[in-house]
Amino acid sequence: MNLAESIVGWKSEIAAIRRDIHAHPELAYEEVRTADVVARELESWGIPTHRGLGVTGVVGTIHGRNRNGRALGLRADMDALPMQELNTFGHASKHAGKMHACGHDGHTAMLLAAARYLAERRDFDGTVYVIFQPAEEGFSGAKAMMDDGLFTLFPMEAVFGMHNWPGMDVGTFGVIAGPIMASSNTFEIRLEGKGAHGAMPHLGVDPVMAAVQLAQSFQLIISRDRNPLDPAVLSITQIHAGSADNVIPNDAVMRGTVRTFSEQALDLIEKRMGEVTEYTSRALNCTAEFNFLRKYPPTVNHGREAAFCARVLKQIVGDDKVDQAVQPSMGAEDFAFMLKEKPGCYVWIGNGQGGHRNAGHGLGPCMLHNGSYDFNDDLIPLGATYWAELARQWLAAPTD
């Protein structure tokens, strides 16, 4: 494994920053303390910072030896999740109901280490923008930064992202061209019928049976309308109706999520759900209100950039440690917004099986969004080396 020696030497120092952030988690658009830590460290290394994009975002600018007009962006996310941490080790969350259960503390730490390395050496031409983004967990912080002028204020040729991946061995990476993570979308259907005694259903209009019929019919969209070669998931996760055993309620509410790897599949599913809701409710004498919210688009890696990232990774960890056929995830990531605007690539870095956790970790597995999760600090030199080498080599490569 070819790691930058100076970054390896900083591991304990950067890990301490990571653990401090872990102990003080902040939710979407509340990352004031985290942003202060990031900006303070960057400025101590001679990196000017810009704050306030997307409310709490931070962007650092690292110029190389020559400003030749070329630039790229490296992005990390900073926010925590609204959940209770089960770990009791020393750096466990100090704030009830808030936890870094997705490793954004580690992502921030890896990018900080890379920024320090690049700023100390400046052995490249062009500019590297290090982007510390708020509100990835469901609140579109990437889009908020873009709406506030990220790519206008900091023009860049391409943008790159990275996420730790539990279950993949430390020292391994996953990268593919095309979709690597799915779109994230939610829906809500409100059905209104006519309440009646449960023993006299003919005197009412039953919204519960309408909800049951819709739940079954929606799965036919997946199995019969959708191209089976274009993956998609439609999950009904909530049905709320009624309050007594012998009363047919006036109304029912259904909610759930839709995940796709393509905009085409998403367009089809949303259209057909609306049609099925309209005609089914009408056939059963109910009225229906159908709302479909598109939250995050699919995270789609660009082919040229994915190939470039894979080459850099293989130089660091070896050919056999880079999985270029990794199975995409139906989870979602708002880095997708950036990849719709700029060429780029999003890779996974193995976080291991959980054996790295100190005594005092919870009894659950070390999986994302689990109360027993903790980022593996052994990734800091590896992820930071990748970021630094990617930036240096990208800026040295000829443009088309």
Automatic annotation (TrEMBL):
Its cofactor is Mn(2+). Keywords: Hydrolase, Manganese, Metal-binding. The Mn(2+) ion enhances activity. Residues 185-273 form the Peptidase M20 dimerisation domain. InterPro entries: Amidohydrolase, Bact_exopeptidase_dim_dom, Peptidase_M20, Peptidase_M20_dimer. GO terms for molecular function: metal ion binding; N-acetyldiaminopimelate deacetylase activity. GO terms for biological process: diaminopimelate biosynthetic process. Mn(2+) binds at C102, H104, E137, H163, H369. NCBIfam families: amidohydrolases. This is Hippurate hydrolase.
